[in-house]
Design brief:
Layout (H helix, E strand, L loop, with lengths): L1 H34 L2 H25 L5 H21 L10 H27 L2 H7 L2 H13 L6 H24 L3 H35 L3 H23 L4 H7 L5 H28 L2 H10 L1 H11 L6 H36 L1
Helix pairs in contact: 2-4, 2-11, 3-9, 3-11, 4-8, 4-9, 5-7, 5-13, 6-8, 6-12, 7-14, 9-11, 11-12, 12-14
């Protein structure tokens, strides 16, 4: 009887061990499928970008905030503290700091600073719907950049979507002009356009060069996130002390006594949202492409624009609503064009292999 019990116990332990191993393998398989899943990365990027845009608009417009470099530095610091804490708990992992890699990655950090700063300035002067619509122009720059650097192709349908994007931007311009009530409003509007166009070029350069560097260094998502934010912190801190007003009067203006705690909390929340956008941006670029990454941002315009109309004092007129609609159609046309192009490429592969 004891032998039988020993035998059955052994079989039970063996069965449990096999099931545990099988479950661990299935868990790892599911985890890997999620990490390398394009649609999941796109969905995560959509949510994080919406949160990031709305939070930044709230901070920059809600409290007469003008210390943009400081806000961006706080975002990067919160990001580094967050992923450092997760790494210490063995939840995530990323490579250790390396001076040689940091030197090679430093131009991307400068481009990141240029991108997020010009983005914050544009968002400060433009409404969320107009900001998201003009952001589409970045897609055109990236698409033709991919043609030059990665052997991409712009089809007729994709070109049609580009024309629709330009048209939606022109319509948004008329909507903003119709809503302007004074010369000061027009000045702020044109200043916002200047920062917006600067942001388009900076964003395109950042995405294209980062994608090329990721291919060369084989950086994973958290590696990219770690180096981007870590190398940005000293640049942002240097710029805030050199180029921004740190007088006592301006500090009181940015952090008034009656809502100082709310302002600081909003900055920290903005930093927390930057953690999501930093990771999801690198994730989406890695498992899809830089053009798809930017296109997802374009398809995001509808919920982002609606959030701007609901939570902020954005202009609502025929031109503004039409620009959102045309911009959304442009995004759909481009998405269909990319799917058709990928399908044609897959159909040509067997013929090429023969």
């Amino acid at each position: 009887m004891g032998i039988i019990t020993f035998y059955l116990t052994g079989q039970l332990l063996y069965f449990i061990k096999r099931k545990s191993f099988s479950f661990a393998m299935e868990k790892n398989s599911v985890s890997n499928s999620i990490v390398n899943n394009g649609p999941v990365s796109i969905f995560a990027y959509c949510l994080s970008s919406i949160l990031m845009t709305v939070t930044n608009k709230y901070v920059l417009s809600g409290f007469s905030f003008n210390l943009n470099f400081l806000l961006l530095a706080v975002q990067s610091i919160v990001c580094i503290v967050t992923i450092g804490s997760l790494k210490s708990l063995n939840i995530i992992n990323y490579r250790q700091f390396n001076k040689d890699e940091a030197k090679k990655w430093s131009p991307i950090a400068f481009l990141l600073v240029a991108m997020i700063y010009t983005s914050s300035k544009a968002l400060q002067y433009l409404s969320i719907p107009v900001y998201t619509i003009f952001k589409n122009l970045t897609i055109i720059l990236i698409a033709y950049g991919e043609v030059i650097w990665f052997g991409g192709k712009v089809t007729t349908m994709a070109l049609s979507s580009f024309l629709l994007m330009v048209l939606s931007s022109v319509i948004a311009y008329y909507g903003d002009n119709a809503a302007a009530k004074s010369s000061d409003d027009l000045f702020s509007l044109y200043l916002g356009y200047f920062w917006m166009f600067t942001n388009c070029f900076a964003s395109a350069a950042f995405v294209l060069i980062m994608r090329k560097r990721i291919k060369l260094t084989n950086f994973k998502d958290f590696d990219t996130m770690y180096y981007n934010n870590l190398l940005s912190i000293p640049i942002l801190l240097l710029f805030t002390f050199l180029f921004e007003d740190w007088s006592s009067e301006n500090i009181l203006k940015n952090f008034p006594a009656d809502n100082r705690a709310v302002t600081i909390a909003a900055m920290i929340l903005s930093g927390a949202s930057s953690v999501g956008i930093s990771y999801c941006s690198a994730w989406c670029v890695r498992v899809t492409s830089s053009t798809t990454y930017s296109m997802v941002g374009a398809l995001n315009k509808l919920p982002i624009a609606l959030s701007g109309l609901i939570f902020f004092d954005a202009a609502v007129n025929f031109w503004s609503v039409s620009s959102i609609f045309v911009g959304f159609i442009a995004g759909l046309v481009y998405a269909v064009a990319k799917q058709k192009q990928q399908k044609d490429t897959q159909q040509q592969l067997p013929t090429t292999n023969k």
